[in-house]
Amino acid sequence: MLNIPGRWSVRNCDGASRRDFMQVGSLGLLGMTLSQVFELQDRAKAAAVPPRFEGAGGFGRAKSVIMLFLQGGPSHIDIWDPKPDAPSNIRGEFKPIQSKVPGIWLSETMPKLAESVDKCTLIRSMSYTPKGLFNHTAAIYQMLTGYPPDKVSPSGQLEPPSPIDFPTAGSWISKMIPPTEPVLPFVEMPRPLQESSVIGKGGAAGFIGKAYDPYRLYQDPNKPIKLDDLALRKETPPERLQSRFELLKGINESMPDLEKAVENTALDTYYEKAFDLVLSGRARDAFDLSKEPDKMRERYGRTTFGQGALMARRLIEAGTRFVQVNWPSVANGNPETTAWDTHASNFGPLKNLHCPVLDQTLSALLGDMTERGLLDDTLVVAVGEFGRSPRLGVSTSGNSNSPDGRDHWPYCYTAMVAGAGIPGGRLYGESDETASSPREKPVHPNDLLATVYYALGIDPNMEIHNHLDQPRELVKGKAVTDLFVG
């Protein structure tokens, strides 16, 4: 009898186990080929729902994810969660405005999102308590991998990326549920995650291997981009590449079935997808914003972030599973130009630079994806690694702050989620009167990441093995299943 493992088994990461293949001898009696076996296994994995999620809505509803990572830590109290009745040194300079949904108020810096809030849910109770010094790289690593960092330098920064790091979410997703079309499974843009000299921490495939790293488009999508690596060389016509592919495929097919199955179960598939990726042009076309009407490009805003979000929509439309658009700045950068890291100046940059871009881009993306029907099966998440201190001018992380600056604050902040069956026009959780801590329904960053996996039909608590072959949970968090309840 052939065992087809459920979706929550660790073996799902790599397909069938060697033990499964030891039972291949009985396949001839069933009249089944190996390819048919793999197809049956894929169907079983797609249909399986872990018992503890039975009856909960939203499991497997999403086909893809857009992660808008607002690197630097946006001030929740000045954007998503205004506190007009708090003292002046907490509420700040901005006034609240009523959104189109009764009972939901936003900062005056977000007027367009106030008219689009019926398409999303705001989680106002994001919260965690860090161990020791908390900084950007540690928080980013936790947010995107689901695990706290284990090596921190005396300065509080993490060590550079390592092949033994836990994989970022997009890498796991591209490994477990690769695209069905000849497209890139996981794209990150327009710049790497960075704090000072530590670049890319929490943004790679780590111990599952570089094959699952993101395709890194570190270019400004608001400018012409180069995609030479996704195009055929002039000296290599399609016919020549086709002949090379057929030769390699023929060699692989000549291997004994059992050996091929055990050692290279996905080889044909990977080579075929790589071939199609280059030859079909589908991936290149998805990056080509010149195919969008000027009116649409203006709708998103002619900014790096705005055009990045538009490109994300095009990639998802083409079949990419996971697109991560990093806010185009460097943590600890200059708040007068790019960074959400508003130690030195909070209100001017938010009012004149950051919030107008965020407001236009989010409202355009939610509206555009709704109109195209893409929000039905795409999960959109906008979140930073933490929020900012409710009280102005104080030091909470060892950094110095100006009188109108806000420091790091992981104890309470806001995330926006939309699509994939999550009802719009809602608040989830609540902060206290100063937005300092959750009053109800706290959501750890790991819980949010677990919810991303859950929406894609991946059990967030499935067993995986780290670089030492030790069993671990995919993410140390609990999916927030009631986000999907209307």
SSE layout and pairings?
Layout: H1 18-21, H2 27-30, H3 34-47, E1 64-69, H4 88-91, E2 96-98, E3 105-107, H5 111-114, E4 121-126, H6 136-145, H7 169-176, E5 186-189, E6 194-195, E7 198-199, E8 215-216, H8 238-253, H9 257-263, H10 267-280, H11 282-287, H12 294-300, H13 304-318, E9 322-326, H14 347-371, E10 378-383, E11 387-388, E12 408-409, E13 413-418, E14 426-428, E15 430-431, E16 438-440, H15 445-455, E17 463-465, E18 471-473
Parallel strand pairs: 1-9, 1-10, 4-14, 5-8, 5-9
Antiparallel strand pairs: 2-3, 4-13, 6-7, 10-13, 11-12, 15-16, 17-18
What is Rg?
23 Å
- The computed structural class is alpha/beta
Mean pLDDT: 83
The fraction of residues assigned to DSSP E strands is 5-15%
Helix content: 25-40%
Our count of helices gives: 15
Describe the structure.
The protein is built from 15 helices and 18 strands. With 486 residues, it is an alpha/beta fold. The chain has an 8-stranded mixed beta sheet with strand order 8-5-9-1-10-13-4-14, sandwiched between helices. A two-stranded antiparallel sheet has the order 2-3. A two-stranded antiparallel ribbon has the order 6-7. Helix 6 (136-145) runs parallel beside helix 15 (445-455) and helix 8 (238-253) packs antiparallel against helix 10 (267-280). The chain is globular and about 60 Å long. The two termini are 42 Å apart. Mean pLDDT is 83; it is low at 1-47 and 258-267.
